[in-house]
Amino acid sequence: MQKLLIEGGHLLNGKVRISGAKNSAVALLPASILADSKVIIEGLPDISDVETLSCLLEEIGGTVGRKGQTVHIDPAEMTAMPLPNGRVKKLRASYYFMGAMLGRFKEAVIGLPGGCYLGPRPIDQHIKGFEALGATVTNEQGAIYLRAKELTGARIYLDVVSVGATINIMLAAVKAKGRTVIENAAREPEIIDVATLLTSMGARIKGAGTDVIRIDGVEQLTGCMHTIIPDRIEAGTYTIMAAAQGEKVMIDNVIPQHLEPLLAKLREMGVKIEEGEEQLLIHRSDKLKCVDIKTLVHPGFPTDLQQPFTSLMTKAEGTGVVTDTIYQARFKHIDELRRMNAQIKVEGSSAIIQGPTPLEGAKVKASDLRAGASLIVAGLMANGITEITGLDHIDRGYANITEKLENLGAKVWREEMTEKEVQQFQNS
Ligand SMILES: CC(=O)N[C@H]1[C@@H](OP(=O)(O)OP(=O)(O)OC[C@H]2O[C@@H](n3ccc(=O)[nH]c3=O)[C@H](O)[C@@H]2O)O[C@H](CO)[C@@H](O)[C@@H]1O
Ligand SMILES: C=C(OP(=O)(O)O)C(=O)O
């Protein structure tokens, strides 16, 4: 087990290239189950979630070959192999095996997913969708059993705007009989990306990216080639790092429109940002001003950037309030930031940050993926050395983060943890 060490205070300079989107990748890979021949996906990020899903595709009989960032998946020999335990527990997106396997085999057994603990993360809307399409769904000892004689298109209104439920219902519906309409659908760019892949496979989907998606079922889906979109959350994280500790940093391979809510808030804080077609240039700003943010469903401020943004606010002057309306308990990073001298208190679903406070290096633990990102932002700014444990979370979603930061001039490295440190980590 490793820990990440950061010697804070070094200015970041240069260019960082953003990888393919995690939240697209984790849906595109299971979507390949629906094809009858080879699916090629280009630009996949080098993260453990991709590795885990590739292994799961192999567990059900797929052939997966990876060369650099391109993955070839041959789904021809896949079967409805039950996946009640094991790797499915390592990540959230294993729930996409439910929709994809139901769509192809009319049956699936998938263990309840893992992923970041951000408070309760129910999947009732996924199940409501599968049932509306004609599936019988039961929960037996922590695994979801899905079975349908036939899937028939239906009108499904999501009670909660959910990325996972929207994509999962699309996966189950593309081969159903007749028309499915998803109302109150999520509108994230990753949903458009998944719909683009499915359309290239022969699916008939209209309205992805709006809150009403119409899917006309087809009998067969074929192999295709697809290039993934850039990761807006990774891009946002590096943008925040640049605002926190950058001299002049270019974020390359980004779709600036995907980051509008973040960029607007950074500008409000006083950060100077130049936008190109696929780049952002972030300039050093000596004085930042605290702002309030509220996370909302897309296109509002993304909850996945709330935690790194909170760290940046410790550098800004005044009082800022960060409210998370999507995951009201997504504040596990705050105790760790306090160890680093941040002045933050949590009240309900808000964190109130008093700045500016010079941060001090400390031993801290990443409790989830974006908590990890927030500690890295803090470590880059802090005096002295910050030691971060819990790298499994960070490696689920940030490709080559140590190398990318080193290239920007950060002093950052990984070390093996001693046995005692591993024990302390496991007991904490
Ligand atoms: C793999 C992936 O894409 N993960 C993203 C996805 O997670 P995920 O798809 O799990 O998140 P959802 O969009 O489903 O969740 C949004 C909200 O709806 C609630 N909810 C969701 C489903 C459901 O059946 N019932 C229900 O009540 C959740 O508790 C949450 O409060 O979107 C989140 C919100 O943008 C992001 O933080 C995650 O990075
Ligand atoms: C919460 C996240 O991921 P997951 O849904 O995969 O746990 C995230 O990417 O911030």
UniProtKB/TrEMBL annotation:
PANTHER family recorded for this chain? UDP-N-ACETYLGLUCOSAMINE 1-CARBOXYVINYLTRANSFERASE, UDP-N-ACETYLGLUCOSAMINE 1-CARBOXYVINYLTRANSFERASE 2
Keyword Cell division on entry: yes
**E.C. number(s) listed in UniProt:** 2.5.1.7
Name the chain's protein: UDP-N-acetylglucosamine 1-carboxyvinyltransferase
- The residues listed in the UniProt record as binding UDP-N-acetyl-alpha-D-glucosamine, with positions renumbered to this chain, are 92, 121-125, 304, 326
Q: Which gene encodes it?
A: murA
Q: Where, per the database record, does this protein carry 2-(S-cysteinyl)pyruvic acid O-phosphothioketal?
A: 116
Species of origin: Gracilibacillus caseinilyticus
Q: Which residues form the Enolpyruvate transferase domain?
A: 7-405
